[in-house]
Amino acid sequence: MRVEWSRPDLKHSQLVHLYEDHKDRNTNQIESYRGRTKLIHQELQTGNTSLKLSSVQVSDEGLYKCFIKSKSWNDEATFNVKVEVVGHPPVITVDGFDDSGGLHLQCESEGWYPEPDLEWLNSEGVSLSPETTEKHRTTDRFSVKHTVIVHQSGKIHCRVKLRHHMLETPISTTMITHLETDTGQ
């Protein structure tokens, strides 16, 4: 039996994992997959040719093909693998007040893949419009930063969302606005 996992979306449909003649034969394996792929040999007898990939990286996202060949038949299946990386919890910074007494808040979160959504919510859960929005991408991760000006005191939340993942940081503006009033600024 031959079980061959490859990446047809890469140049020359490169090898991810090869099992043939009762052994793993990964001498021609893509370098970035070395030591990270595994087939459960006992499961092959029951028809399970699942590939286990450890230490998943953003570059692992893409098209995978499994080709199976035995003496009497062959078959193949293609899978599209999506990778998600949950970044750091959002950090809120107080940037002072404007001339109208509005409190400038900045929220930033980094290390996400793919690009997440960032939003500000007031204490009733209503979305606040950001004054500025910045997005940065490193090689394989995203950072987002929003600035908002708040004129009422209360609890404000900065929320970062990516599909089924969400991280949130609250801040109480009540104490900050009292400090501004007390110091006469």
What does this molecule look like?
8% of the residues lie in helices and 50% in strands. The chain is mainly beta and 185 residues long. The chain has two domains: 2-81, Immunoglobulins (Immunoglobulin-like, Sandwich); 91-183, Sandwich (Immunoglobulin-like), CATH 2.60.40. A five-stranded antiparallel sheet has the order 3-2-1-6-7, with no helix packed on it. A four-stranded antiparallel sheet has the order 8-9-13-12. A four-stranded antiparallel sheet has the order 11-10-14-15. It is elongated and about 80 Å long. Mean pLDDT is 90; it is low at 179-184.
In short:
The longest helix has 11 residues.
**N-to-C order of helices and strands:** EEEEHEEEEEEEEEEEH
The CATH homologous superfamily name of the largest domain equals: Immunoglobulins
Proportion of strand residues: over 45%
CATH architecture of the largest domain: Sandwich
C-alpha Rg (nearest Å): 25 Å
**Major beta sheet summary:** 5 strands, antiparallel
Distance between the termini: 78 Å
Overall mean pLDDT score? 90
| The top level CATH class name of the largest domain | Mainly Beta
* Number of continuous helical runs: 2
Subcellular location: Membrane
Keywords: Immunoglobulin domain, Membrane
Domain Ig-like: 1-80, 89-174
Pfam family, one: C2-set_3
